[in-house]
Amino acid sequence: FNKPEWYLTQVLMWIGNHSKFLDDKIQPILDKAGSSVNAGLEFSRALVMLILEKLAADIPCLLYDDTLFCHLVDEVLLFERELYSVHGYLSSLPSCMHILSEESCFQRWLTVEKKFALQKMDSMLSSEAAWISQYKDITDVDEMKVPDCAETFMTLLLVITDRYKNLPTASRKLQFLGLQKELVDDFRIRLTQVMKEETRASLGFRYCAILNAVNYIATVLADWADNV
């Protein structure tokens, strides 16, 4: 169970390798019989049901191993993305996200997501380049003079959104949104702490960088306000 990519990749290969046969040979038979069944989707659905059984058996064994659990979630999300984007799977059919949404698994996912996000925030703020803009030498790209830590933080929030956006229920998505709000508040506190160290040099490089960071984050959050 520590290598979920093995069986997830195998299922994707089976779906891809059988698609032409199902479309060319099986679907015409179903159509001729007046059936509304889509052969390719039915084949995919049956294989996904096997994966759900496998996940239901494996997840309890690795719930409290952060590394293995995080790896499983990453692989499942990659699998889901390819299943929908490449193989035309439908959101109305059974999905791995239903397993990840079950209470014990979901709460563990939230906990691990928060843990790794906080670690990322620690590293981005302790970096030597934290207050320097990646684009400082390209004036037409760097109008807001965004420090690296602020840009990395907003990318972190965007990645989290991308990971949970396909959850099947709004209530689960809202719990992830709650996590993102916590992270924004945590980042605000960290910026405040750094700013207090810089009050004697309010026109100094780092103090200005903090103001630029706050302005950038506020602007991006305002842009995201219409994203339901």
TrEMBL record:
One of its GO terms (biological process) is retrograde vesicle-mediated transport, Golgi to endoplasmic reticulum. InterPro entries: RINT1_Tip20. GO terms for cellular component: Dsl1/NZR complex. It comes from the Eukaryota. This is RINT1 protein. It comes from Emberiza fucata. The gene is Rint1.
